[in-house]
Amino acid sequence: MGAYEALAVCYDRLTNDVDYQAVVDFYFEILRREGVTPRTAVDLACGTGSVARILAGKGLRVIGVDLSEEMLTVARQKAEKDEQAPWFICQPLQRLHLYRGVDLAVCALDSLNYITDPRDCAQAIGRIYRALNPGGVFIFDVNTPEKLRAMDGQVFLDEDDDVYCVWRGEFDEAENICSYGMDLFQRRGELWERSFEEHREYAYTRQQLMGYLKDAGFTRIQVYADRQLREPGEGEQRIYIKARKGRRL
Predict the structure, then answer these.
(1) Strand ranges for the chain from DSSP E
(2) Burial letters 146-174, b for 16+ CB under 10 A, else e
(3) What is the model's pTM?
(4) Pairing relation of β-strands 191-202 and 177-188?
(5) Are 194 and 16 in contact (CB under 8 A)?
(6) Which residues have a Cβ under 8 Å from the Cβ of 77 and sit 6 or more positions away?
(7) Distance, first Cα to last Cα, the chain
């Protein structure tokens, strides 16, 4: 089973420790430094729409893009009663095409790592550049190679009363990819239903990503530690990267 098919309906319950508000707050710290007040945004690989909904709650017109129909179904259900709901579309990032330009593009929770062909990643970044208005800002985070390599052989467990999820990481040095098979058990009345998904993340270096950004035309590229306005330290597990398109808004 592909990534996020069975997981979609219980994704939010298994990731209830993720502070989406803090992620969005960090985006706006960066935007304040850049002197940018966006009116429109795209949440790339938006999943169940948590970041997109927070952005929309700040008054932005938001588009959420994801490859998983299952995750988008959950996102639409969550947002259906919102006063200003995001508009959700199903697209792969390497073929991203928006009906209008946006001032801000964000991509949260190491979603770019899921593009496991570097050529596709470079193409996706080029598409994101074209989707931004002049002066627009692109902010994203990735898991570092150090983190993904450290996951090799590690076993992880997430559970609540109705869901049990166990997964084991394996890092392939030849492919530069961390794979983790995920066994998911969901309660169905008195029975438990088992499903299996495989997730794969490519270990991009910051130099690779900065190269893709420059090739696409981005300028004013800056790398940050995890939700901190400073350079990443040695062995950083997650980094954020900001880039600008052309002139100021």
Answers:
(1) 40-44, 61-66, 87-90, 102-107, 132-143, 155-159, 163-172, 177-188, 191-202, 219-224, 238-244
(2) ebbeebeeeeeebeeeebbbebebebeee
(3) 0.96
(4) antiparallel
(5) no
(6) none
(7) 43
d(CA 55, CA 47): 14
Give start and end residues of each alpha helix (H) in the chain: 11-14, 20-34, 50-57, 69-79, 118-131, 145-150, 206-216
pLDDT, one tens digit per residue, over 60-119 is 999 999 999 999 999 999 999 999 999 999 999 999 999 999 999 999 999 999 999 999
> Cα 37 to chain center, whole Å?
22
Residue 108 has phi, psi (to 5 degrees) of -100, 165
- Domains of the chain by range and CATH? 7-143+204-244 (3.40.50.150), 147-201 (2.20.25.110)
Query: Which residues touch 231 (CB under 8 Å, ≥6 apart)?
Result: 223, 224, 225
CA distance 26 to 227: 6
Query: Is the model's pLDDT at 2 over the cut of 90?
Result: no
Contact 135, 36 (CB under 8 A): yes
Q: How far apart are CA 167 and CA 201, in angstroms?
A: 14
Give phi and psi for 131, each to the nearest 5.
-75, -20
* Alpha-carbon span 88 to 29, nearest angstrom: 26
